[in-house]
Every structure is written in structure tokens, then in C-alpha cells.
């Protein structure tokens, strides 16, 4: 059961500001999603092997061979916050 | 002596090892050789986590991980996959770290260390693969910085996180564990430990069986020992003053040597782990036998072999096998001169001089140490002169053969010593009489004269014996 408080916590984890009046609506929607999973739980899966991935393939690997990286100016092209070739973020802890 | 651990200290370590011997990152083809390059020049859409980019696993990284797991006596999982560990922090542009969760590639291993009271087994809980985040540089100190610079060159590098059980009981044991781990990884040739950030340590510490505190961001082994000593003292003092230890994460401030509270630890479910949909599972069990067969001889096995094959002392075997390069160096020397003599010269003398200068074995050649040992063995120079030659080679360069001549270290010829002894005895009748009357010290006077006459190039012990033989006739 998702409460208003849980919505607030999830919002905090995702760094999304959720207003008081939005919390109720989100709680309701998230609960209906959970209900749907509840229905799935009722399906009889006896004898069905668990899957780890939506596609039934394993071991897609790449050889350890170097490919060209992007030029620095292209890497930084989409930000206005930069300094000496670095991205610049506000003070963080 | 039994170490009782009166304060109930329990230490567990999480060590992040960067597999920098790989050519490319874990999920993309960006080069791992970024240490001397400009920031953000070894990045691509995959390691920046740009929309639409698709990671593909580096096959050799998986093989390295299995190799490490086997060397740590772990079980290797049959099937495994990557998960997303969600947290919001600018070192990860995607907002999650791709890591392994419920099926780490290796688990339930052990490392044997020299504990406070003899050999101890430290259990390895798990070793899993994950990507390294980018590097953050706080402008000013972390507490009062004006901003943070981010370099994603490191982002996506392959990490193996090796997690131990809280089996260590003192900072010293923690240090030994780290040294042993590094030694094993060196043997496997999966990383270069000298590169910045190659091994990073987080420590979990508790005292009196209380809550554990995690100390993060320890960047060196010396730092780990210091951080643990500080943190144990802090917790003990806090408890003695009636305080309670709470579950928290603390940051180790290397400059001040203290730990600072960062935040109360996030609960595991806050990370909202879920299977990484962009990467398919890995089934690697069939690779294990081949990798196991190719595993090199590891430090403990090599130590035992050195003892039985060369007949050297355990202490020497230990010193010689800590570093693979030293072990190989020793074996080459031992193939050319007496292995026991070689052990003394390499383990005690050469390693001592190298440690004093904080340099590696590569600074000296097998050929040169064999020459020095040969000169001593043939009695052409004294042991002290041998040490002096090693020091000269390290500090000024040059070949031992030339240094012997230029520094006048060759022992003088026999007849010159014999002549000097004759003269010294003849010139010192009083000292001879005193010695024969029981004044042992007067012998030094005569030996001193011999040394004077040979300009200090005779071996003092030998001169003493010759004087004795001469006057006892």
C-alpha cells in the first residue's frame, strides 16, 4: 500500500519535488499499478522456469578493443556549466 | 600470545579494485589509459549514459573477474546479470550505477593473513563487477566547497568490489588483509596498483558489538590504517562518555586524519535495484575450468615452494613472495648463485635499500646483484663494501665492477695485509705484552695500526684474526 508519505519519500530519492496536493493523486495511481501486479501474482506459474531477462539470450559480449572517444568540446557541448574541461556542479556532499 | 580483542573491534572492508590492465571500459570501447589526459576526453555516449546508447559487456573483464574470484577461493556463479542501483549523484550521469546485486560473479571465498596472533582466515563475502563512477573534485574542502568539477574519464571503468566479512580485529589486521589482497591481484596481473585510484577502500567498523559505522573514501592503505585507528578511538570515547553509536556513513579527511559524519546511511531498498534491461544475463560456468587451469602460482603457494625448493627461512620466503616482481627477480638470482645467500642479499639487503628509497625492484638488475654477491663470495670485497656498492648503484648509477675500482673497495692483496700485520706487531711490543698479560683491549690498538697501514682496505675481522694468530705463536 502506497501512502502519501511513501510518495514523498520516493520523490525525494528521485530528487523530484512533489506538491502536497499531487501526492494523493500519485498514491492512487501507484496503488492501481500495484494492484495490477497483485493480479499477476495470482497466475499459476507452477512448472514455469524463471526468466532473468525479457529476451531469452545470454552472453552478449564485446572484445576488449579500443574505439574512439568523443572530443572534449562535443562532450561538453550541451552544458553551460563547465570549467577547465570539467562539468561543473553545485556544491555537493 | 592470544589476542583477546578487549574492545570487541570488528572491521569489515569493501575494496574497489579498478581493472586498469583492460584496454577498454566495462561497457564501451573507451580507452582505460586516461591518467595523463585532459578531463572528459575518454568518454562516449555509453559512459555518459546518453539516451539511446547501449552498453555491451567487455568479455575480458568478465574473465578477469572470474580469475580474481578463483584466486580468492570463491565459488563462481553459474548465471549472473547486472542490476541498476539507483541513486542521484553527479558522479553518475545516468542516475544509476550498473552493478551486480543478488548473483555476484564470485562469493564465499577467503584470504589468509598474518593476524595479531598467528595465521587468520578472513572470509570474503562476495566479489562483484560494477562500473566506476566519474571523478569529483570539490573546489576547496568537501564541507565548504563552492562547487564540484566532474571528469567522466573514469566513468565506466571496470571495478571489482571485494567485500569481506567483519573478521578483522585491529587496524593492523586490516592493513595486512589489504597488503595480501594487493599481492594476489599483482600476481594475477589484472591491475596496476601504482595508478591513482586503482584500489579504494571503504571500511565498516564497530566496537563493543555496537552499530557499525561506514568510513568511506579511503584512498591509500596507510590511510586505511589511520582512518580505522581514529574511528575506533572516536567510537570508544563516545561510548565511554555515555553516547550511542548510530548507523552512519562518515568521510575520511586524509589531510586532517579524522572522520566526519556525512549522512545517515541510505537503506538498501532506497537504491531500488532492478535488473538492467539493456544487458542480457551472463552464463559463465563453462569458462571456469580453463581459467582455473591458467591461474598462476599465488603468493602462499610460491612461499611454500621457495622454502622447500631453496631451503630458505620462512621470513625470507615471505619477504620475497609479497611482490611478484621481487619473487621473479629472486628466482633468477637463485639460479646463478647459492639460493640461501641470494635470499639474504635480495630480501634483507636489497629490499631494505629499495624500501628506504621507496622504489621498486626494477631499479636494480639481476646481473648487478649477482656480481656483488660474487665479489663477496670470492672474498674480493667485504660485505659492507657490497652494501656500499648497492647504495651507489641506486643513488648514482654505474656498474658494480667500476664502482669497486673507483671507490677502492677491493680488499688489498694477502701479502700486503700480512706485511702490515708483521709491521704492526713489531712496532707495538707494549701492546703485545699487555694483551698476553690479559688486557684484551690492547689488541684493538694493533688491529688499528694494521687498518692504518692498509688505508682501511683490509677486512677488520680478518686483520684481527691474523694479529691474534701472529702473537699467539
UniProtKB/TrEMBL annotation, chain A:
Family annotation (InterPro entries): Asp/Glu-ADT_sf_sub_c, GatC
Family: Belongs to the GatC family.
Function: Allows the formation of correctly charged Asn-tRNA(Asn) or Gln-tRNA(Gln) through the transamidation of misacylated Asp-tRNA(Asn) or Glu-tRNA(Gln) in organisms which lack either or both of asparaginyl-tRNA or glutaminyl-tRNA synthetases. The reaction takes place in the presence of glutamine and ATP through an activated phospho-Asp-tRNA(Asn) or phospho-Glu-tRNA(Gln).
Keywords: ATP-binding, Ligase, Nucleotide-binding, Protein biosynthesis
Keyword Protein biosynthesis appears in the UniProt entry: yes
EC code: 6.3.5.-
Cross-referenced SUPFAM superfamilies: Glu-tRNAGln amidotransferase C subunit
Protein source organism: Methanolobus chelungpuianus
Oligomeric form and interacting partners: Heterotrimer of A, B and C subunits.
UniProt record, GO biological process: glutaminyl-tRNAGln biosynthesis via transamidation; regulation of translational fidelity; translation
Molecular function terms from GO: ATP binding; glutaminyl-tRNA synthase (glutamine-hydrolyzing) activity
Reaction catalysis annotation: L-glutamyl-tRNA(Gln) + L-glutamine + ATP + H2O = L-glutaminyl-tRNA(Gln) + L-glutamate + ADP + phosphate + H(+); L-aspartyl-tRNA(Asn) + L-glutamine + ATP + H2O = L-asparaginyl-tRNA(Asn) + L-glutamate + ADP + phosphate + 2 H(+)
Protein's UniProt name: Aspartyl/glutamyl-tRNA(Asn/Gln) amidotransferase subunit C
Pfam family, one: GatC
Automatic annotation (TrEMBL), chain B:
Any Pfam family the entry gives: GatB_Yqey
Enzyme class: ligase
Sequence ranges assigned to domain Asn/Gln amidotransferase in this UniProt record: 328-471
Key word Lyase present: no
TM region positions: none
Function: Allows the formation of correctly charged Asn-tRNA(Asn) or Gln-tRNA(Gln) through the transamidation of misacylated Asp-tRNA(Asn) or Glu-tRNA(Gln) in organisms which lack either or both of asparaginyl-tRNA or glutaminyl-tRNA synthetases. The reaction takes place in the presence of glutamine and ATP through an activated phospho-Asp-tRNA(Asn) or phospho-Glu-tRNA(Gln).
Protein's UniProt name: Aspartyl/glutamyl-tRNA(Asn/Gln) amidotransferase subunit B
Annotated source species: Methanolobus chelungpuianus
Taxonomic lineage: Archaea, Methanobacteriati, Methanobacteriota, Stenosarchaea group, Methanomicrobia
Amino acid at each position: 500500500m502506497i501512502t502519501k508519505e511513501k510518495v514523498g519519500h520516493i520523490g525525494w530519492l528521485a530528487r523530484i519535488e512533489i506538491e502536497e496536493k499531487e501526492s494523493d493523486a500519485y498514491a492512487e495511481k501507484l496503488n492501481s499499478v500495484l494492484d495490477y501486479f497483485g493480479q499477476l501474482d495470482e497466475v499459476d506459474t507452477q512448472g514455469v522456469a524463471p526468466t532473468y531477462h525479457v529476451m531469452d539470450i545470454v552472453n552478449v559480449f564485446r572484445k576488449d578493443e579500443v574505439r574512439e572517444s568523443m572530443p572534449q568540446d562535443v562532450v561538453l557541448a550541451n552544458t553551460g556549466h563547465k570549467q577547465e574541461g570539467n562539468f561543473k556542479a553545485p556544491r555537493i556532499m | 600470545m592470544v589476542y583477546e580483542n578487549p574492545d570487541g573491534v570488528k572491521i569489515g572492508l569493501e575494496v574497489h579494485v579498478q581493472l586498469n590492465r583492460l584496454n577498454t571500459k566495462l561497457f564501451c570501447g573507451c580507452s582505460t589509459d586516461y591518467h595523463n589526459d585532459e578531463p572528459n576526453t575518454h568518454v562516449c555516449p555509453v559512459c555518459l549514459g546518453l539516451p539511446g546508447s547501449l552498453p555491451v559487456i567487455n568479455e575480458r573483464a568478465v574473465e578477469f573477474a572470474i580469475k580474481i574470484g578463483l584466486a580468492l577461493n570463491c565459488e563462481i556463479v553459474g548465471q549472473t546479470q547486472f542490476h541498476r542501483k539507483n541513486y542521484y549523484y553527479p558522479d553518475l550521469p545516468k542516475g544509476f550505477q550498473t552493478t551486480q546485486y543478488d548473483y555476484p560473479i564470485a562469493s564465499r571465498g577467503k584470504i589468509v593473513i598474518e593476524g595479531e596472533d598467528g595465521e587468520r582466515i578472513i572470509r570474503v563475502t562476495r566479489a562483484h563487477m560494477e562500473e566506476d563512477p566519474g571523478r569529483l573534485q570539490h573546489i576547496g574542502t568537501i564541507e565548504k566547497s563552492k562547487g564540484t568539477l566532474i571528469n567522466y574519464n573514469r566513468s565506466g571503468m571496470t571495478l571489482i568490489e571485494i567485500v569481506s566479512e567483519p573478521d578483522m580485529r585491529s587496524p593492523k589486521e586490516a592493513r595486512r588483509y589489504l597488503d595480501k589482497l594487493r599481492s594476489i591481484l599483482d600476481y594475477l596481473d589484472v591491475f596496476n596498483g601504482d595508478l591513482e585510484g586503482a584500489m579504494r577502500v571503504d571500511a565498516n567498523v564497530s566496537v563493543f558489538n555496537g552499530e557499525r559505522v561506514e568510513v568511506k573514501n579511503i584512498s591509500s592503505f596507510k590511510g586505511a590504517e589511520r582512518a580505522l585507528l581514529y574511528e575506533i578511538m572516536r567510537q570508544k570515547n563516545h561510548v565511554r562518555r555515555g553516547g550511542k553509536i548510530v548507523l552512519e556513513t562518515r568521510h575520511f579527511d586524509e589531510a586532517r586524519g579524522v572522520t566526519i559524519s556525512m549522512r545517515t546511511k541510505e537503506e538498501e531498498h532506497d537504491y531500488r535495484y532492478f535488473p538492467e534491461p539493456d544487458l542480457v544475463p551472463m552464463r559463465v560456468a563453462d569458462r571456469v575450468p580453463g581459467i582455473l587451469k591458467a591461474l598462476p602460482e599465488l603468493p602462499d603457494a610460491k612461499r611454500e615452494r621457495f622454502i622447500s625448493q631453496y631451503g630458505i627461512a620462512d621470513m625470507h620466503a615471505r619477504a620475497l613472495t609479497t611482490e611478484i616482481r621481487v619473487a621473479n627477480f629472486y628466482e633468477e638470482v637463485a639460479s646463478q648463485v647459492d639460493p640461501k645467500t641470494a635470499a639474504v642479499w635480495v630480501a634483507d639487503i636489497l629490499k631494505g635499500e629499495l624500501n628506504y628509497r621507496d622504489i621498486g625492484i626494477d631499479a636494480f638488475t639481476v646481473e648487478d646483484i649477482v656480481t656483488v654477491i660474487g665479489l663477496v663470495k670470492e672474498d674480493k670485497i667485504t660485505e659492507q663494501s657490497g652494501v656500499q656498492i648497492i647504495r651507489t648503484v641506486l643513488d648514482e648509477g654505474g656498474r658494480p665492477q667500476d664502482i669497486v675500482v673507483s671507490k677502492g673497495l677491493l680488499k688489498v692483496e694477502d701479502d700486503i695485509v700480512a706485511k702490515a700485520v708483521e709491521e704492526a706487531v713489531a712496532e707495538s711490543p707494549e701492546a703485545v705484552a699487555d694483551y698476553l698479560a690479559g688486557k684484551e683491549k690492547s689488541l684493538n690498538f694493533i688491529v688499528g695500526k694494521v687498518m692504518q697501514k692498509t688505508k682501511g682496505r683490509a677486512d677488520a675481522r680478518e686483520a684481527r684474526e691474523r694479529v691474534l694468530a701472529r702473537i699467539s705463536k
